[in-house]
Amino acid sequence: MGNIVVSPHDKEGQHHMMATPTSNNPNGGSAATAKNKSEITVLLLGAGESGKSTLFKQVQFFHGVGITHDQERIELIEIVRLNVLENAKNLVAATQHLNIPIEQPENRETAKLIINSLNTNDLEDPSWSKRLYSLWKDAGIQKAYENREKFQLYDSTEYLFENLDRICSDKYVPTVVDVIRTRTKTIGITDMKFDVGDGKQLRLVDVGGQRNERRKWIHFFNTVDAVVFLTSLSEFDLNLYEDNGYWRVKESLRVFNEVVNNALFYKVPFVLLFNKRDLFEKKIATKSFSKYFSGFNEAEEKNPVACIEYMTKLFLNEITEHPLDTVSVKTLSAIDHDNSKQVFEEVKQFIMTQQHRE
Amino acid sequence: MFSTFIEHNSTFAVKVKQQLSTLYYAQIAFGVFYFIISLIILILLFAFRKEQPISSRLATPFMGMIALLVESCLIYITQRGILVNQLKSSNNQMWESGDNDSNIIANIVTIFVNSLNLTAIFCYVIQVVRFELMKFMYKLIHKTKGNESKSDIVLKSIRISTSTSLFLLLTTLFMSFNLVYWTIWVVLRRINVIEPSTYTYIVSISYTVIIFFLSLVIATVLVFDFIITIKEKKEEKKNEPTDSTVKENLVKKSIKMKNSLSKVYDFFISLDEPLYFRVEMILYLICFVFLIVNQVIGLIGLPYRFIDEENYKTALQYDVISFIFEVLYVFTYILVFGGYALLILLIYKVKIWRKFSKNGKSKQDDGMLKNKELLLVIRNEESYESFEKFCEKEFSLENLYLHSILEKHSKIVNGETFEGLSTLLNQIFEGFIQSGATNEVNIPNSCRTKIVNLHKKYGFEKKDSDLKNVDLEEVRQAFFSLVQQVFVNLGDTFSRYSLTTEWKVFKKAIELKEHITEKANLY
């Protein structure tokens, strides 16, 4: 999982990429001025569920702030349990929608309770661990899970159901991994700061990715020194959370286009991170990739490198107003601590180098 | 009551025997009525002693009602019975012994009932002061602006001043002082060291003076309460347009123009729920005014009692006027000492019963997310303000405002009524749901679709009268889903707000409040 070397010769539509508008760049000097600034603002952007907050939490963790502290994780108990409930609810709803019966009568009873009355407080009772696990293992639910591209379900589902014995206890304190694996829909904009040496601080800004949240990004566009754009590799078979009839890849490309070509980011170092590589590799082993991309060679569809290269081209083709030498592309598995640490370090180095170059 | 303090001398009552016995009969009748009422209230208080707002009143209403029960039984029924009985007899000796018996009863009543009554009022004073302190504790804490050491000083002083041991100590001291004080005067009277009229003057005036001072404290608390509320309303107005486009356009729009009567009602109720001490304090002051009039008129008539038969007639007229105020006093007294709290409880019970009979699905209303702390934050004025600022900083105000609107229209949201449904749907759809809305909220497609469908059916320019066959269950389901999602969104912001110093200080205040209320049976 390393860098993908972006060379202008690899890509289609070079004429777009080479275009470098300067006249309509009202704040083009932001990167230059950033060179002397003591604070470097890095924006984590991307559509919903691309993994911005997961990376943000990982960065917190390896800088010993935020979720590293027990007290901060205790505050997230509700969110972890809400994830369990939402996943369970979505799975039960999916069995109805997809017409897949829940097989065991006791699981059907549990399903009824989940839909009608179960709340996060109830999960303090350890008996729910067995009941929910039994439901999770029900053949009907498992079949619905196999068809999860047809409805909205968090990536964390399997992990959370496998850890119910810990979560359903009144003594439960989320582990760092629990927090990282839990899906948190970020609302608004939040940030963290940490030292990066040379008396400089890096301010990492995390944002919500859904359509309504993206309108808030603009508040930070003027002060930005670098952009890290995340997109999920494993979303090729999924539709949007906020609009069920819209393909996620199309949305991601559209957002990427708007951001990368924004005049305000013209000289700003830009990193494109293809996230969820782990899930993607698992997914293409069982699902057809070429079914979703007519231009892709079907024979290569089980080869993750070929698939990722194709995706890279697709995204880079969107670049029309940004100098390519300030763009870096990488793959990432944000739930993997070591990988996140390594990739983020590279991202940091890239940004710093770009700034020195300026 | 003034009737209790009179030293009876029936020697001059011969000429007004008829009128006097009529007054006594009226007093006996009222006495029976007071007895029954106070007994019923006492039983009800006992039955609902663990429920609010009764339990927040501690022993006060019990003491008050026992005092009334004893007073009505001994003074109005027994003593007046003896006096009526002697009036019927023509034997002067019997009159004297009757006077003596009745006076001894009145003396015993004076010692015990005065002590009980005054201690009940004293407890009431402590309670309202304590409640007022707690009510504005958040404001004190809030003023420390998250400064932990400052807030610790505030918390410590509140903890000491509202401690149970201090409460018990003060009450016991006051009760003992009362028992000794009234016994001294009764003994002095009985061994004829002081004249009957002197005794009545001393007892009546000292009783009134003690009550006057206690009332003064209550009045001060009430005035303080009003000043703070007015100040807050002004501050609220001043601070409102934190985000003028959002708040003014959306939240203010949702508040219907209210008539002045409901504004007055709102003012009384604001910050007073759910314990309603404020209204009770006003009732207490009315009760106090009646008592003063009762005592003053009684005292004015007192000299005529001991001169001759003609003057006794004048005394009797004063007695009648004084008695009318005594009746008014007792009625307000009953309200202050338990009656009003029971009425509030009754209203609550009826409301809950109505809600249940209309909609049995109460469990689902609670929703999936049980974040009590978040609810606490958004339902408390001070923390709401601080949370609002945090949301503003994080660009997530839209969820807080939508939540406020949904809470304000809880009857429509819970599917209890469709009055105003169309307006609410238009407001929510245009402001928060439709794609590109100024304050579009982040909700899943399934939830959005439900609200959009609801808006298509019942929204647009429809009036309430145009809405027919509204499927209240569909309305409830759609809003339930929206409320949940907004709450989930707020939960994300809260997960970061909960790490701020402001929240930590506020949480300390909550913990202290829980500690105090546990001891004081408040909430």
TrEMBL record, chain A:
Binding residues annotated for GTP, in chain numbering: 49-54, 155-156, 206-210, 275-278, 334
GO biological process: adenylate cyclase-modulating G protein-coupled receptor signaling pathway
Listed Polar residues bias regions: 20-33
GO CC annotation terms, alphabetical: cytoplasm; heterotrimeric G-protein complex
Keyword Cell inner membrane assigned: no
Record flagged with keyword Metal-binding: yes
Key words of the record: GTP-binding, Magnesium, Metal-binding, Nucleotide-binding, Transducer
PROSITE patterns, A to Z: G_ALPHA
Annotated binding of Mg(2+), by residue: S53, T186
Annotated region (Disordered), positions in chain: 1-33
Transmembrane segments: none
CDD domains: G-alpha
One Pfam family recorded for the sequence: G-alpha
GO molecular function, one term: metal ion binding
Name the UniProt record assigns to this protein: G protein, alpha subunit family
Source organism: Naegleria gruberi
From TrEMBL, chain B:
Keywords recorded for this protein, A-Z: Membrane, Transmembrane, Transmembrane helix
InterPro entries reported in the protein's UniProt record: RGS, RGS_sf, RGS_subdomain_2
Leader sequence residues: none
Transmembrane spans: 24-46, 58-77, 104-129, 166-188, 200-228, 282-307, 327-348
Superkingdom, taxonomy of origin: Eukaryota
Gene3D superfamilies given in the database record: Regulator of G-protein Signalling 4, domain 2
Keyword Magnesium: no
Residue ranges of domain RGS in the record: 373-507
Protein name: Predicted protein
